[in-house]
Amino acid sequence: MSGDSGATPVHGRPIRVLIADDQMLVREGFSVLLGAQPDMEVVGEAVNGREAVRKVAELAPDVVLMDIRMPELNGLEATSELAASGAAARVLILTTYDLDEYVYQALRAGASGFLLKDSSARQLADGVRVVASGEALLAPTVTRRLIAEFSRLSDLPSGPAGPRGPLRARLAELTERETEVLALVAQGLSNCEIAEHLFLAESTVKTHMSRILDKLRLRDRTQAAVYAYETGLVAPPG
Predict the structure, then answer these.
(1) Nearest to residue 133, comparing CAs of 112, 116, 103, 110?
(2) What is the number of H-type helices and E-type strands within the chain?
(3) Left (φ > 0), alpha (ψ -120 to 50) or beta: where does 102 sit?
(4) N or C: which end of the chain has fewer CB within 10 A?
(5) How far apart are CA 149 and CA 13, in angstroms?
C-alpha cells in the first residue's frame, strides 16, 4: 500500500489523523491502514462523539475520521460541535450507511467529506489527503445524493429552502465569474473540470474558489455546494 497520491503533507509534516468509531476493530483497522502511509500519523482514537470533540481540542488533528452512529454523541452532532467551536480539524464522515439523509445531514453539519466504510485502503488514504489539503471530498455520486436529498427536503414545509433573503444577499458580493464557478462546484465539478469548462487556468479557478469562500464566509467547497442549493442559485433537478 503506497501513499504516492501526489499530495503534500500539511505544512511539510505528516497529516495528523484522529479516528472516532465505537467499534474497536474498525479503529484498529483504520489505524493500521493510515499508519502505514508515509505522509500520515494517527494521533489518537475516540470511542464516541463526546470523546472525539474533547480529543480534537487536546490533540489538534488535521483530519477526523468520524463514524455516524456512536453513543453519547453521534458523529453528526460531534461534527456540528466542532464546526461551531471553530476547530481547524476537518471531518471526513465514515459510515456503512449509504443513505441520502446521512449524506445531507453530514455535509450541513460541517463535514468536508463522506466515505463508506467499504472503501478501499487507497480511497481512504486519498480521501484523508484531499480533506487535509483544504479541498472537499465531494464525488459526483455523493453530489447526486446531496441534490436528491435537498430536493426532497425542500418540498417539506420546514425544509432547508426556508427564508433565503439573508443567504442570497451575500451572493451579490460575487463577481459574475465567481458565480459561474460556484454553480459548477455545486454540480460536483473539480477545479480541473471547471477550468476546462470555462477555458481558464486551473490556478485561476483556485483563486476564484478562495475568493468565493472568503466572501460567503464558508469553510470549503462542500459548504459552497450546499449554499448554492439553499440559496436557489442552482436548482435541484425536477
Answers:
(1) 112
(2) 11, 5
(3) alpha
(4) C
(5) 38
Q: Three-state DSSP class for 45?
A: strand
> pLDDT in tens for each of the 238 residues of the chain?
333 334 445 557 899 999 999 999 989 999 999 999 999 999 999 999 999 999 999 999 999 999 988 988 999 899 989 988 888 899 998 877 666 567 677 777 788 888 878 888 888 898 899 888 877 665 555 555 665 666 565 554 445 444 455 567 788 899 999 999 999 988 878 788 899 999 999 999 999 999 999 999 887 777 788 788 778 887 765 5
Report how far apart the first and last C-alpha atoms of the chain are (Å, whole number).
43
DSSP states of 41-100 as a string?
EEEEEESSHHHHHHHHHHH--SEEEEESS-SSS-HHHHHHHHHHHT--PEEEEEES---H
